[in-house]
């Protein structure tokens, strides 16, 4: 199997004069959880559809699971579009089996797997219920199970957490991790930074149709220096000259970038100068901070750090 499940080189997709995908290069390692991170309207959905072969690019090339014609690999790909849809009168397990049949899975085997999957993900009591009788979260879980029932090698999810409450978000994260442990490559788009930070090994930060960063979450965060937050009992004294020139002041709290030689020399000097240290902490930058630095404040303002359901939980 190729080292990469998906590659793209110079990928361009235009709609009239508008470039929804504007010269994108990327490579998704096989077996990884890879996130495409960007605000709504950044071109994430168009990029996914182009990578999958649902739409053809105007320029550039891409491969999917080793094939130059991505659509030829549809039988080993699971795809959950942002626009969800299930037949309301269809029984839940039949809906899952039907989605598998669209990818070549025999219906009898699909029904067996559907029952097992629903039991495994806490929906055993809803196996024979019609879709219309399920809650929104349960119906979305059914559609997710339909995306994996044929045991694909690649799963592509477009904004999969949209509309889910905190409990169902956690269930989806568990499902993604289960699939990754089984060696399946997961590619998903999101505008919620927390999901990418928790799940992804690598991310592509997309804004206005362009990839502004591609690499590991750690390397994105590593672009920024950690910040030292120092609280003192005293507000003045000769020890102030010890602090770095970029120090920000808020009352008795002093904030500055971690010095290149570490915190120990500065801490020793502050203690020796009797600065009266109350607390000292080193705060590592998060993926949101990295996103702001890479894509800019305007793009970051349209992102969500954590889903509203998570903030309220």
Index terms:
six-stranded mixed β-sheet, 313 residues, 32% helix, 11 helices, alpha/beta, four-stranded antiparallel β-sheet, 27% strand
Q: How would you characterize this protein structure?
A:
This protein has 11 helices and 13 strands. Helix content is 32%, strand content 27%. Strands 5-6-7-3-8-9 form a 6-stranded mixed sheet, sandwiched between helices. The chain has a 4-stranded antiparallel sheet with strand order 11-12-10-13, with no helix packed on it. A 3-stranded antiparallel sheet has the order 2-1-4, with helices on one face.
Blueprint of the fold:
Blueprint: E1 4-15, E2 18-29, E3 33-37, H1 44-52, E4 59-64, E5 77-80, H2 92-101, H3 107-120, H4 136-148, E6 154-158, H5 166-181, E7 185-190, H6 193-199, E8 202-207, E9 210-216, H7 217-221, E10 227-232, E11 248-250, E12 253-257, H8 264-272, E13 277-283, H9 287-295, H10 297-300, H11 308-312
Parallel strand pairs: 3-7, 3-8, 5-6, 6-7
Antiparallel strand pairs: 1-2, 1-4, 8-9, 10-12, 10-13, 11-12
Helix pairs in contact: 2-3, 2-4
Quick summary of this structure?
The chain is an alpha/beta fold. The protein has helices at residues 44-52, 92-101, 107-120, 136-148, 166-181, 193-199, 217-221, 264-272, 287-295, 297-300, 308-312; strands spanning 4-15, 18-29, 33-37, 59-64, 77-80, 154-158, 185-190, 202-207, 210-216, 227-232, 248-250, 253-257, 277-283.
């Amino acid at each position: 199997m190729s080292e990469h499940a998906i590659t793209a080189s110079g990928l361009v997709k235009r709609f009239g004069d508008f470039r929804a995908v504007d010269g994108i290069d990327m490579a998704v390692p096989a077996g990884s959880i890879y996130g495409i991170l960007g605000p709504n309207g950044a071109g994430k959905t168009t990029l996914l559809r182009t990578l999958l072969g649902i739409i053809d690019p105007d320029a550039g090339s891409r491969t999917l699971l080793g094939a130059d014609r991505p659509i030829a690999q549809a039988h080993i790909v699971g795809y959950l579009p942002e626009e969800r849809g299930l037949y309301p009168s269809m029984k839940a397990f039949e809906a899952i089996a039907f989605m598998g049949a669209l990818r070549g899975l025999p219906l009898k085997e699909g029904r067996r797997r559907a029952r097992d999957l629903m039991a495994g993900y806490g929906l055993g009591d809803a196996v024979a219920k019609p879709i219309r009788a399920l809650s929104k979260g349960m119906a979305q879980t059914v559609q997710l199970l339909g995306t994996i029932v044929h045991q694909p090698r690649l799963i592509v999810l477009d904004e999969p957490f949209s509309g889910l409450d905190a409990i169902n978000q956690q269930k989806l994260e568990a499902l993604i991790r289960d699939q990754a442990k089984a060696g399946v490559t997961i590619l998903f788009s999101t505008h919620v930074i927390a999901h990418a930070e928790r799940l992804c090994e690598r991310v592509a930060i997309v804004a206005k149709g362009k990839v502004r960063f591609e690499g590991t979450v750690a390397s994105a965060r590593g672009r920024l220096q950690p910040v030292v937050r120092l609280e003192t009992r005293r507000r003045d004294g000769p020890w102030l000259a010890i602090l770095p020139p970029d120090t920000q002041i808020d009352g008795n709290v002093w904030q500055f970038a971690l010095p290149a030689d570490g915190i120990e020399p500065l801490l020793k000097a502050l203690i020796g100068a009797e600065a009266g240290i109350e607390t000292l902490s080193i705060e590592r930058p998060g993926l949101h901070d990295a996103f702001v630095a890479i894509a800019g404040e305007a793009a970051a303002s349209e992102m969500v750090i954590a889903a509203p359901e998570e903030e309220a939980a």
